[in-house]
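Proteins fold reproducibly. Look at a sample protein:
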Amino acid sequence: MFRTLLGNGEFRSLFRSRLEHLLGDAMSTANLTARIDALAAAQTPEIPAHAARWEGFRTDWYDSYVVRTKQWLVDRRPIFLAQADSFYSEFSLPPWSGDYSGLVINEFLASNDTHGQDETGDHDDWIELYNNGTATIDLSGVYLTDDLTRTRQWEFPAVLLPAGERLIVWCDDEAGQGPLHASFKLSAGGEEIGLFAPTEFGNVALDTYVFGQQTADISEGRAGDGDPVWTFMNPPTFNSTNGDTSHIRGDVPAVAALGHNYPNPFNPGTRLDYSLPAEGRIRISVFDVRGRLVRVLVDMTRPAGDYYAEWRGIDRNGRRVPSGLYIAKMEFNGTVRTRTMTLVR
């Protein structure tokens, strides 16, 4: 019966939307933990009376049950998410049918010698997408092209793009290197870039841009994230905020530094300022308190200057992370700096 219901397009869209909402919000670790705390707060005044009534019952047992229940939720969540992914695969749920209006081509580099490396270390051409909306966008089935007459040239895999986040697609015609390697290369002599909706949603144009002659290591992008005005960027703002010109200044920082994030505590996003005394490779990553990598915010070569990175409480799989302490780690030319951040949902 369920498979029959999935044959209805409206039901499929509503079902997937509801399931994503439950996993990311109502059934998130933070929300379920808060509910347990609320129940415990209501029951705690009654526990001494029950301890007196039932011989051998100790009040500290109740407290340990509360702690163990919350820890069970934390430990089980990765299993729930894996089961959800398996469910999507088994029932072949179709692409998300929400609003694509926030999806834009944000920046591109058609001749890349030094700015941004893919998984294999290659300096390939790239396109940066940005979600300028307020909700996560499922890119499954969306098409990217360098020829506006070929509206189905390269199809996105199953990947989510949260609100306010960016996504890099490598334009190297090397699909074997990863799921986000497009089947075309960009021409520095000038051409077109287009985003088109999935076939079931009309394959209509979502965003397009026609560009002219390009210069090596100078990108072209929106003056600000999602801004209608385009401009050249030297250096490129690879996978980071467009319009960040704070590094263009007369003085050079004396040492590599990572500032405190602000706001802190934060929800949903926070900012980390950092300074580089010389050109070099900079990597800023977020880890949880168990030392597990949550997300890489910056990984590129940049000249000396002052910059900032933003984190919106999203992990590398595009999912919201629960409330808690997180560690920002900056690595630059052998120097390591860390900061503690507090996310409160």
